[in-house]
Amino acid sequence: MAPIILRNSYTIVPSEPTWAGCFPLAEWDLVGTITHVPTVYFYNKPSESFQGNVVETLRNSLSRALFHFYPMAGRLRWLPRGRLELDCNAEGVSFMEAESEAKLSDFNDFSPTPEFEKLVPQVDYKHPIETIPLFLAQVTRFKCGGISLGVSISHAVVDGQSAFHFLSEWGRIARGEPLETIPILDRKILWTGEPLPPFASPPQCERKGFEQPPLLIGETDNVEERKKKTTVEILKLSKTQLEKLRSRVNASEYADPARGFTRYETVAGHVWRCASKARGHSPEQPTSLGICVDTRSRVQPPLPRGYFGNATINAVARSTSGELISNGLGFAAEKISEAIKSVTNEYVMTGIEYLKNHEDLKTFQDIHALGSTEGPFYGNPNLGLVSWLTLPMYGLDFGWGKEVHMGPCTHDGDGGSLLLPDKNDDGSLILATCLQVAHMEAFKKHLYEDI
């Protein structure tokens, strides 16, 4: 692969003055992943109908987008007890321009490789957090005329739904179109400043929503597991394979005939079982599956369209490897379904209250990228499977056409996985998964042979 050479670096600020000031982030902003999430888009050479300059188009439209989404141009600041506040100081975002003698065809099927990391701005977390931009972008021009756009977005400020909202509106502005959905920037919507109403049953969040994932039997910490070498694979499940899985799971004794199991519940159950087999656990090994649940429609009243922030919560399904393997796919899917159903308005609000009163939120923050061994670890014997199945992730057009491919960049966290729809919209799904090198081949074998 030809080297990627950085040519220019810019700081992009909002096109007009914006509100300035600080506000604490909402509780759900402060737990789980608080580092940046990288994705990359690839485009063919712009056609002759596009008369503009790619870099200037991106820079100018990004500046105008930041006027509407001004929190993205701010900076984070640590507060006591593991809290963060957002300083809306309009210091701006990072935008880089690069080029390469490589061609798009050099990326083959666009499976993540170490080269992908060079297409996305890297964040140096050794720097003080108040100096790190919340959004970084890099446009790379290839010898063939093709383009990549890599972005890194702070998960402490937005979740996937809000991140793709921002990218989509950036594209609309670049095309000269008005905003489709105005962002709702009021984080107080998910604050619990008033006393909570009495609930009929005690909150389960304190016991089940925030406890640390289990360790391997015989271990007192996960320090060694975190050090083990990992590898990333992009694995496709065809429509036919998915239909076989769903037919089997919905015919099981665990299925609700009136509802059936969803695509996510089905595939997540299959992945969870295959990982347990590949890892060679003893039957009594506890294992958990972290599930990212969007609460926008689950709280009362529902969050307004365009809410800009984090509105996802981590639900957890728990079992043992022996139970998962011996009881079949329906058992695993039911465990996952029950965990998702538990995320009610009561669960969300009591969880916020629990976090608000907790002494130090670093206990719940996934900050391994900062070199920390604290926070939840969803590597062996656990998994974390995030669904992008309903996110508006495809079709990002800045005026020269939609991408030919988009996807996550490489990540090295054991157990971290993403489930995406196939861009061709043919009913197949894409599983981007990271496992220890020692487990990956066995996992792939089970993933396909056990269908």
Give a written overview of the molecule.
The chain is 26% helix and 24% strand. It has eleven helices and 17 strands. It has helices at 54-68, 114-117, 160-174, 205-209, 223-227, 239-250, 263-279, 321-327, 329-341, 345-357, 437-449; strands at residues 4-12, 21-24, 32-33, 36-43, 75-79, 83-88, 93-100, 135-141, 147-154, 230-237, 286-294, 312-320, 365-366, 383-387, 405-408, 416-421, 429-436. The strands form four sheets. Strands 1-7-8-9-4-15 form a six-stranded mixed sheet, covered by helices on one side. A six-stranded mixed sheet has the order 10-17-16-14-11-12. It has a three-stranded antiparallel sheet with strand order 2-6-5, with no helix packed on it. Helix 1 crosses helix 3 and helix 8 (321-327) crosses helix 9. Residues 192-207 have low confidence and may be disordered.
